[in-house]
Amino acid sequence: MAGEGVRASSTASSPGARTMASAAVPVHDVGSISARLDRLPTTRSVWKLIILLSLGFFFELYDLLYTGYVAPGMVKAGLLTASTTGLFGTTGVASFVAALFAGLFVGTMACGFLADRFGRRTVFTYSLLWYVGANLVLAFQDSASGLNTWRFLVGIGLGVEMITIGTYLSELVPKHVRGRAFACCQAVGFSAVPVVAFISYLLVPLKPFGLDGWRWVVLIGCHSAIFVWWIRRQLPESPRWLAGKGRFEEADRILSALEARVEKEYGKPLPAPLVAEAISTVRAGFGTMWVAPYRRRTLMMIVFNIFQTVGYYGFANWVPTLLIKQGITITTSLMYSSIIAIAAPLGPIIGLLIADRFERKHVIVAMAGVNVVCGLVFSQASATVLLVTMGICLTLAGNIISYSYHTYQAELFPTAIRARAVGFVYSWSRFSAIFSSFIIAFVLHEFNVTGVFVFIASSMLVVMVAIGLFGPRTRGMALEKISQ
After folding, report:
1. Is residue 1, in this structure, part of any structural domain at all?
2. pTM
3. Which of 25, 102, 333, 338 could bond to 323 as cystine, CB 3.0-4.6 Å?
């Protein structure tokens, strides 16, 4: 599907005709579809697509991150223990965390190809329904083995959903807003963190209507299924994916409708697409990740994902437990955690201002450094104000890294293998989390909170080296150009 260099005439965008110069741009051309997308102004219709995908991410993060907030309730109910018997015990909080990440590993590693094969829109919908159904069953489990089994199944759906949303978003939005789009998605998504933290603070210590509070937290998240079909009806399939599959007429029809809405909102003819560069054919297979230039990127992102998970989830999933280890009661710990969680969407909100102004790789390195410093200070703090302040700084740094690298890794691979490749490299973070949860539990038991944050700091230093030395620049570049 190599494209030919084409420049659309700027006079072809008169209202009433096929708008936005698309009549002058051949539809049987991957590069031209990309060029038409990338020149779109960011009007209300473009932001609507971003918000809809962000709502899907909100529901996903609610389910992904309730782990740390419901764990004390599970311990209180006698279903799990705070520490483990041996390094890999199956009755502790660590096993519950590990079960989630084992499912995420399977979902991202083994099922990432689904969105490349069946489409972004379809997989976005059904993976969300999968994990909602599994959560519904999980809420009524009464044993550690039952909790772990169903948390594993939840993780499979979450893993597929996470890589699909990132792939979908990177392909739908113009290149000049890609960073802000991911920042917005993460800001909306991470607003689930204070929501789940506050709900947990209210419910986990109680038994409303005789049902453990942690079960209510899980069940409340299941309401996302109500919104699934409405969101799906509002979202088009990715024109880039359709073009890559040779379905040019469908891609053109979807893109023309979007162009018409954008032009109406823009109030004047849209700018003509730039010359569409020739796009070389990329085979949609696993082996493509291991040829230049993708091999180096694949290896870099594997290393990054293995170690960034330690820094992010080492704090996010353990913050209530870490506070309890600092001598704080379960109720006060959940209250502090709720305050810290308010900062979760603030990192991506900051990203709305800076995401497309700075290189993604530079932001990742800088925030990893902040994580190192603040984590070590947190481990030595005892005063409430300092604990909460450092917790907020860790949350901000972690979530700025999060939106930056989700944007970054989706940019590094071509459309034909984007979901598969992102799923593969991202799966290593899930694999890492399986074992890091047990390691953190062990380190917490043997070396207390200080040992945990020394472990986290060492991991973030590896992140800084991997991205800082080997990461390519991507800001403001067309996806197809980055992929060449």
Report:
1. no
2. 0.77
3. 333
Q: What is the pLDDT of residue 8?
A: 36
Q: Are 132 and 56 spatial neighbours (Cβ–Cβ below 8 Å)? A: no
Cβ neighbour number for residue 370 with a 10 Å cutoff: 17
3-state DSSP assignment of residue 119: coil
pLDDT tens per residue across span 124-144: 888 988 998 999 999 999 999
Domain that holds residue 137: 10-18+21-483
Tell me whether residue 5 is in a domain: no
Q: What is the pLDDT of residues 301-335, one digit of tens each?
A: 999 999 998 877 777 666 666 666 666 666 666 67
In a domain, 310, yes or no: yes
Separation CA 229–CA 213 (nearest Å): 29
Of 79, 77, 115, nearest to 426 by C-alpha is 115
Residue 216: name the closest of 157, 135, 150, 154 by CA. 135
Evaluate whether 421 touches 286 at the Cβ level (below 8 Å).
no
Find all residues with CB under 8 Å of 257, minimum gap 6, and list them: 236
Backbone angles phi, psi at 71, to 5 degrees: -55, -45
| Domains identified in the chain, total number | 1
Residue-wise pLDDT tens digits, 417-470 = 898 999 999 889 888 877 777 787 788 777 777 778 888 888 999 999 999 999
Within 13 Å and on the Cβ side, how many CA atoms surround 8? 30
Residue matched to tokens 């004390």: 72
Q: What angle do CA 429, 147, 131 make, to 5 degrees?
A: 60
* CATH for 269: 1.20.1250.20
Strand positions, DSSP E, 191-247:
none
User: Is-contact 364 408, C-beta < 8 A?
Assistant: yes
CA distances from 435 to 81, 325, 438 (A): 18, 21, 5
Q: How is residue 321 written in tokens?
A: 């437990």
What are the start-end ranges of the E strands in 16-137? Answer: none
Residue 183 lies in a domain: yes
Between 318 and 250, name the one with better pLDDT. 250
Share of the chain residues as helix, strand and coil, in percent rounded to the nearest 5: 75, 0, 25
CA distances to 38, 163, 302, 402 from 111, in Å: 29, 10, 17, 22
Q: Are 274 and 39 in contact (CB under 8 A)?
A: yes
